[in-house]
Structures are given as structure tokens and as C-alpha cells.
Design brief:
The chain has helices at 3-67, 72-75, 78-90, 233-278, 316-326, 329-350, 362-365, 370-381, 400-412, 429-434, 444-447, 459-469, 482-490, 507-516; strands at 94-101, 104-108, 116-117, 123-124, 130-136, 143-149, 152-157, 172-177, 182-187, 203-206, 210-216, 222-229, 282-291, 297-308, 312-314, 355-360, 388-393, 416-422, 439-442, 473-476, 495-496. By secondary structure, the chain is of the alpha+beta class. It has two domains: 3-232, 2-Layer Sandwich (Beta-Lactamase), CATH 3.30.450.20; 280-420 and 427-438 and 494-516, EAL domain (TIM Barrel, Alpha-Beta Barrel). A hairpin with a 5-residue loop joins strand 4 (123-124) and strand 5. The longest helix has 65 residues, at 3-67. 34% of the residues are buried. The model is unreliable at 1-5 (pLDDT under 50). Its main location: membrane. This is cyclic-guanylate-specific phosphodiesterase.
């Protein structure tokens, strides 16, 4: 498969993924939110039913306290009947109140002294209340719930107790005895299998047709159940989908657009670099390197810069990695050498012993014949080989053996070698012992941490100790303050560069600066 075909396939797959994944994620989120809303809704319904049941239980308990201490004669006297009627009228959920002996309600708030047999209890609750779930009074077709404790009995209308709840078709409710899993009052579609014996507290579960929530009272031996038809959940899904699906589509399209833009940029960047080299859009700036002890400028680092069409500045951290990946970094290095060969005679006329530092990438260090290229450049530019420093970052040492051999050949030719940005890459101390280098450049990250409470504030001192142990010269980068300079002098660092001494500048500014300064000291190697 051709490279362009692979790139096209990559873009198509990438666009499909970046478009589809946010939409699929939105769909999953819609479903999850719908489930959470369903659970919260059905649990809220169950709690509302339980609240109603607890109010009923509170009213039964209050009536029991008033009647429980009365004798039969007292309860069924005129005053006692009036008391039962007051209990009935003051209770919002009780339909009647009465005095019971055995299974017979001797007197009541609605029947006076006319006794009524309520029948045997269905079961006894954990709190010793006798529960009758099918009591018939005036209307033989209308069942009531009767709850008695001691001599007091309360009558509850089974339809009215839950009448306040949602009347959605298919929605079911039940108030039940927790210890017996026996329904007391139910409304709607309730399956007996839903009274889960293993539930110890609140629970939500799904059956084939319903979402069921069960909640337990903390004060009474009772629980409440609400059962919501699954078809009802489509409303929740629709409401969430209206918001989330368009967001997913928007994010998917946005990510696809970003992917296409990035890929097109990366694909076109090598061509832009080639065109920029042909169109002389690259130029050199020079940043001074000074002797810390005297403040004398000893040399400069040559820095390549790219200004597209004479106006748009492209940072090196953008185009250098692309050039490395595209295999055209050698073209940029060649441009650095050509521009420096043009500028160097002007600089050397002012300072014959001036040294020049040039950055090399991994591709440069691994390229066969690179040492001979440097020799030819030095001959063309008039720069003595021992005034030339090749700077290599730790991250460039991909193949340590090959890079080490290149360094050895350079030093044998008299060219000096520096490890740049030391401490930020992945090389080990063992590599330093293997490599043939002259200088160690401390990264500005560690220099600027000097004298602060930063965790990296002591790193620079450790690097300086390492350099001394390996008999290497140290150059500190990124010095911006006099305080940093004083600390580095105290650590016996020989050379430095940074904004304190000068920003990267064009050739004209460098020449003016050299004419204002004194003599230049030769940079000593290790």
C-alpha cells in the first residue's frame, strides 16, 4: 500500500472514530442518566407511599394511647364514644376508631355500641399489632384494613390511603408488613414475587416489565413498594437524548475537524519547510555565552528561526520535530551551516577567538559522514575547529553507540561537544561516562529553581557535582536574575547564557554589542 493510501485510510478511520465515539458515549450517557432518573423517580414514589403509611401508623399509635387505658364500660359509654369519634375526625387517614375484645369490635366511632365481628387476624406484626387485611363493614364489597393493638382498633380505607399518589397507567403501589412480606394496602399492578425476602433495606431492581423500588420504615414494621412500567422510561430517555445527543454529534464533528486539521498540517509541514528553505525564510539569531567570573562574552549559540512569508513566526519546537520525522532535518542543519558561514567572518573580524555553538538533532548525529560535513563547513566559514561546539540534547541520543562514535570522531578532529538541556531527557549517568563530551549544559528549568522552595531547587547543584566528577565544564542556561548568577558563581560554574546577558539577536546587534565590550576570552575545554 502506498504511503498516501495509508494516510488516507488513517484519516478515514480517524474521522469515523472521532465522530462515532462521542456520539456513542452520548448514547451511553443518555441511557445511564435515564436509568438514574428512573431509579430516583420510582424510589421517590415508594418513599411518598411510605410516608403516607407512617402517618397512618402515627395516627393509629395516637389513638391507641388515648383508648388503651380505658375499660370496656368507659370506652363504650357516651363519653367514650365521643372520644372515639374525636379520634376518627382528627385523623386524616383513619376511617373509624373502635374498642375491641378478642375478634369483636364492641363499640366504634361510626356504629356506636353496635358490636361487629372483625374475624381472625391475618397475622401479628413484629410490634404486636393484630393485622386484618379484609374486614367488611357496611358494604360487603368494600374491604378495609383493621389494625388493633391492645383494646384499640383503627379502620383504614384501602383505596383512600394511596389515593394521593401518581395515577400513571400501569403504576403500582403497596404498603406491606416488612417482617411478614405481607401486603396491607395495594393499588395497581403488584406482583407477589416482588416482595423480596432477601432485601434488608432500600432496593431498586428491574423485572421484565417494571422498575420496582422497595423502601423500609425506620420506625415501624412496614415497607413500601412502587412499580413503574418500563415503557415509562422512554420519556426519560427522550428528555436526556434531546440534550446529550446533539452535544455528542457536535463534539464528534469538532474532533473530526481538529483531526483533519492536525493531519493536514502535519502532512503539509514538511512541504512548507522545504518551501521556506527555498524562499530564504530561515535565519539565524545569536545568544551570548559569557564567562561568569569576568562577565566577558566568550561566544554565541546559533539559533535557527523561521518566519513564514516574512510575518508568521513558527517556533522551533513546532518545525524541528516535524523535520526529524520527515527525514529533512539535515536540510535545516545545512541551512544553519550556510548562514553561519556567511556571518562568521564578520564576527571573527571583531573577535578572532570567538566560539560558536550549533545544535544537532538525532538525525544529524546518526548520519554517516556528518563529521566530514562539519570539517568542510569550518573550512568555508573560517571558524577554527576548536572554536566550534556541537550541542546535542539528551533526547537526541536514541542510539548511544552510534552517537558516541560520532562524538569521538568530532573530538578527535578538534571539535568540541556539549550535552544540552541536561536533566530533562532520559540518558543515564552511565551514558555520560561512555560519551565523549566536553561540556554539560544545565537546563534553564533547574537554573531558575535555584534559591526557591521548588523540589528541583537542588538539582542544578547535583548536576554541577556530577560534571566535576566527570571532569566536564559546565554551562548554565536560562539565567535571568543577579541572584541566580551569584548562586552559580558560588557553585563555581564557569560559563552561562540567558536573558540577563542578552536575548537571541540578529548579526547586526551582535556586532554592535561586541564593539562595546572588551576582549574575548577563549572557551576552555575539559
Amino acid at each position: 500500500m502506498k504511503i498516501i493510501d495509508r494516510l488516507t485510510a488513517f484519516i478515514i478511520i480517524g474521522v469515523c472514530l472521532t465522530t462515532a465515539l462521542p456520539i456513542l458515549a452520548a448514547i451511553a450517557l443518555v441511557r445511564q442518566q435515564a436509568l438514574e432518573r428512573e431509579d430516583a423517580h420510582v424510589t421517590g414514589l415508594a418513599r411518598a407511599a411510605l410516608s403516607r403509611a407512617e402517618i397512618t401508623a402515627d395516627q393509629l399509635s395516637a389513638g391507641g394511647r388515648l383508648v388503651g387505658g380505658l375499660t370496656r364500660q368507659q370506652a363504650c359509654s357516651d363519653e367514650g364514644i365521643d372520644l372515639l369519634r374525636r379520634i376518627d375526625l382528627s385523623s386524616t387517614l383513619l376511617q373509624a376508631a373502635g374498642y375491641i375484645e378478642g375478634d369483636v369490635m364492641i363499640c366504634s366511632s361510626f356504629g356506636g355500641n353496635k358490636p361487629r365481628n372483625l374475624g381472625l387476624p391475618d397475622f401479628q406484626s413484629r410490634t404486636n399489632a393484630a393485622i386484618r387485611t379484609d374486614v367488611r363493614l357496611l358494604d360487603p364489597d368494600l374491604p378495609y384494613l383493621a389494625v388493633s393493638r391492645g383494646a384499640f382498633v383503627g379502620i383504614v380505607h384501602k383505596d383512600l390511603a394511596l389515593s394521593f399518589l401518581d395515577d400513571t397507567p400501569g403504576l403500582g403501589f403497596s404498603i406491606f408488613s416488612w417482617s411478614h412480606r405481607q401486603p396491607l394496602i395495594s393499588r395497581g399492578n403488584i406482583d407477589s414475587r416482588w416482595f423480596r425476602a432477601e432485601a434488608d433495606g432500600d432496593i431498586v431492581f428491574r423485572t421484565g416489565s417494571h422498575i420496582v423500588a422497595i423502601v423500609r420504615s425506620s420506625r415501624y414494621d412496614q415497607g413500601a413498594m412502587a412499580a413503574l412500567p418500563l415503557a415509562f422510561s422512554s420519556g426519560f430517555i427522550r428528555e436526556s437524548a434531546i440534550i446529550l445527543i446533539p452535544i455528542g454529534i457536535f463534539v464528534g464533528l469538532l474532533l473530526s475537524a481538529i483531526l483533519i486539521f492536525v493531519v493536514r498540517t502535519r502532512m503539509s509541514m514538511p512541504t512548507m519547510i522545504r518551501n521556506g528553505l527555498k524562499g530564504s525564510e530561515f535565519n539565524l539569531l545569536y545568544q551570548p555565552v559569557v564567562d561568569l567570573s569576568s562577565g566577558t562574552m566568550m561566544g554565541v549559540e546559533a539559533l535557527i528561526r523561521w518566519r513564514r512569508n516574512g510575518k508568521d513566526f513558527v517556533p522551533p519546537e513546532t518545525f524541528i520535530p516535524v523535520a526529524e520525522q520527515a527525514g529533512i532535518i539535515s536540510l535545516i542543519t545545512a541551512r544553519v551551516f550556510r548562514l553561519l558561514a556567511e556571518d562568521a567572518p564578520h564576527i571573527l573580524s571583531e573577535r578572532p577567538f570567538f566560539h560558536f555553538a550549533v545544535n544537532f538533532s538525532a538525525g544529524d548525529m546518526h548520519r554517516p559522514g556528518v563529521v566530514e560535513e562539519v570539517r568542510r563547513f569550518a573550512s568555508q566559514s573560517g571558524i577554527a575547529l576548536d572554536n566550534l561546539v556541537i550541542e546535542v540534547t539528551e533526547r537526541s541520543l536514541v542510539d548511544v553507540n552510534l552517537a558516541g562514535e560520532t562524538m569521538r570522531q568530532m573530538r578527535a578532529a578538534g571539535i568540541r561537544v556539549a550535552i544540552d538541556d541536561f536533566g530533562t531527557g532520559y540518558s543515564s549517568l552511565g551514558y555520560l561516562a561512555q560519551l565523549h563530551v566536553d561540556y554539560l549544559k544545565i537546563d534553564k528549568l533547574f537554573v531558575q529553581a535555584l534559591g526557591t522552595d521548588s523540589p528541583t531547587s537542588q538539582v542544578a547543584a547535583r548536576i554541577i557535582e556530577i560534571a566535576k566528577d566527570l571532569n566536564l565544564q559546565v554551562i548554565a542556561e536560562g539565567i535571568e536574575t543577579k541572584r541566580q548568577e551569584r548562586i552559580l558563581k558560588g557553585l563555581h560554574v564557569g560559563c552561562a547564557q540567558g536573558y540577563l546577558y542578552g536575548r537571541p539577536m540578529p548579526l547586526d546587534e551582535l556586532l554592535q554589542l561586541l564593539r562595546r565590550k572588551g576582549s574575548v576570552r577563549r572557551l576552555e575545554a575539559a
